């Protein structure tokens, strides 16, 4: 499973990102990753399987999950769904961080949870219609949601192990960004570790313990992730795609792809194009 560091870029006209989850057609996976943003996934139709903090959450209609900064999570969508995603850049909460430099939120009772879900739904509806003055309205609701998070959903204390994981993932963020920029190169563990002043043993250990994946698996998954984009976005040959993304040949790419998606690249491409 891939673990990657995501840079959250707000919509051009908003101080956050608000969109429909890209796995809406089903048969889709988002492999393990983390980021500094706070995310809310709110299911409108269908269901998705969410994995976070070693827990599995099956989210159905009107269910949502709160994802804090530096929480490793992954998603599987075997079936079609409509899921609203709200991504709030971590810097939004800089005035409310604890002494440790982090802030965490958690779901509360049904009444509070419904208030949050209704706000997210309303924000998306307004943004989607884009009537005259929509940006003012959606921003006003966004700040209402921030107030709700700070006053009703903020956790009072943070477990020491959770805090330790956040700090270690901060260290890994620079490493994984470098790997994302150079994933199609050889990228030996020893060379990457040396570049960032780590021993190979230490880098391997923090990958496994805090990102919950070993270095080699992360690298292969990263290559598959980027290869998928070319697979469904172009008519390039499978062998060409494999070479473009760091695989020695189409056979090694197909083996890695099937392990992660349960089918060959050609089958995945055919299914994806048929459902567009």
TrEMBL record:
Q: Name one Pfam family in it.
A: AraC_binding
Entry keyword Nucleus? no
Record keywords: DNA-binding, Transcription, Transcription regulation
Key word Translocase present in the record? no
Per its UniProt record, what PROSITE patterns does this chain match?
HTH_ARAC_FAMILY_1, HTH_ARAC_FAMILY_2
Q: Where in this chain does the record put each HTH araC/xylS-type domain?
A: 173-271
Q: Which InterPro entries match?
A: AraC-bd, Homeodomain-like_sf, HTH-like, HTH_AraC, HTH_AraC-typ_CS, RmlC-like_jellyroll, Tscrpt_reg_AraC-type_HTH
The protein here is known as AraC family transcriptional regulator
């Amino acid at each position: 499973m891939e673990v990657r560091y995501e840079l959250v870029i707000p919509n051009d006209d908003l101080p956050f990102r608000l969109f429909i989850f890209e796995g809406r057609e089903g048969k889709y996976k988002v492999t393990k990753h983390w980021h500094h943003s706070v995310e809310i996934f709110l299911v409108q139709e269908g269901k998705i399987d969410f994995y976070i903090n070693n827990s599995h959450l099956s989210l159905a209609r009107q269910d949502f999950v709160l994802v804090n900064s530096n929480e490793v999570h992954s998603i599987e969508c075997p079936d079609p769904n409509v899921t609203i995603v709200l991504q709030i850049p971590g810097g939004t909460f800089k005035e409310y961080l604890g002494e440790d430099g982090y802030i965490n939120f958690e779901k509360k009772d049904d009444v509070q949870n419904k208030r949050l879900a209704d706000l997210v739904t309303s924000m998306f509806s307004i943004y989607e219609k884009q009537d005259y003055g929509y940006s003012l309205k959606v921003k006003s609701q966004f700040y209402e949601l921030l107030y709700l998070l700070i006053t009703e959903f903020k956790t009072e204390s943070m477990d020491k192990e959770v805090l330790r994981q956040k700090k270690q993932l901060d260290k890994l963020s620079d490493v994984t960004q470098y790997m994302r920029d150079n994933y199609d190169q050889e990228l030996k563990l020893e060379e990457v570790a040396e570049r960032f002043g780590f021993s190979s043993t230490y880098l391997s250990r923090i990958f496994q313990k805090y990102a919950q994946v070993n270095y080699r698996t992360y690298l292969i998954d990263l290559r598959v992730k980027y290869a998928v984009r070319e697979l469904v976005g172009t008519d390039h040959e499978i062998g060409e795609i494999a070479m473009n993304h760091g695989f020695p040949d189409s056979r090694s790419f197909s083996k890695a792809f099937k392990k992660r998606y349960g089918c060959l690249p050609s089958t995945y491409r055919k299914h994806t194009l048929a459902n567009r």
